[in-house]
UniProtKB/TrEMBL annotation:
Protein name in UniProt: Uncharacterized protein
Organism of provenance: Nelumbo nucifera
InterPro entries the record matches: Plant_NAT
Length: 170
């Protein structure tokens, strides 16, 4: 899946991610006080931020300033500890799954959505800490989702991406 929006994706250092989470999400009722341990967990793949091209993220590293529009997400690969599978699915689901994958392989230019093989044990990515700021964040968050999707396609065990969502009000 191509990232069509003209944004720049950057992987954050753990300290930068921790700073941003505490600064912009620390007021949320269920914010984990041990966010540093969560971000340092072996299952964590990292935290990424996206911002409009032409802007700079260097100001965060030097003086703590962020661009006017940006979004971030952290990703965890839970496939090494959890294996899921869909059991007792009707035959029609199995047929659709196989045929959609076959059509996608034969005609990739049609971009037919293919249903992953979820009938055998598989792993998954967990997206958490999704946050966006600014006028363009409505385009930046989907760009991050596409970025994580592209990462997941490189992982042979990952068949599903699960996303934590919530509404934060200040």
């Amino acid at each position: 899946m191509r990232i069509s929006w003209e944004g720049k994706v950057v992987k954050l250092k753990i300290e930068e991610a921790e700073y941003l989470y505490k600064r912009f999400m620390g007021f949320i009722e269920f914010f984990p006080h041990d966010i540093d341990r969560i971000l340092r967990n072996n299952l964590s793949l990292g935290t990424w931020v996206v911002y409009p091209r032409g802007k700079s993220w260097d100001e965060l590293r030097s003086v703590g300033l962020v661009p006017s529009s940006w979004a971030m997400v952290s990703v965890c690969n839970n496939g090494s500890i959890f294996k899921l599978r869909v059991g007792k699915a009707p035959l029609s689901c199995h047929i659709y799954s196989k045929s959609s994958r076959m059509m996608d392989r034969i005609f990739p230019c049609l971009r037919i959505p293919a249903l992953s093989d979820v009938f055998h044990p598989f792993g998954f990515y967990f997206m958490y800490g999704v946050h966006g700021e600014g006028r363009r964040s409505d385009k930046l968050v989907p760009a991050l989702c596409q970025f994580v999707h592209n990462m997941a396609t490189e992982c042979k065990d990952c068949k599903v991406i699960i996303m934590e969502v919530g509404v934060a009000t200040q």
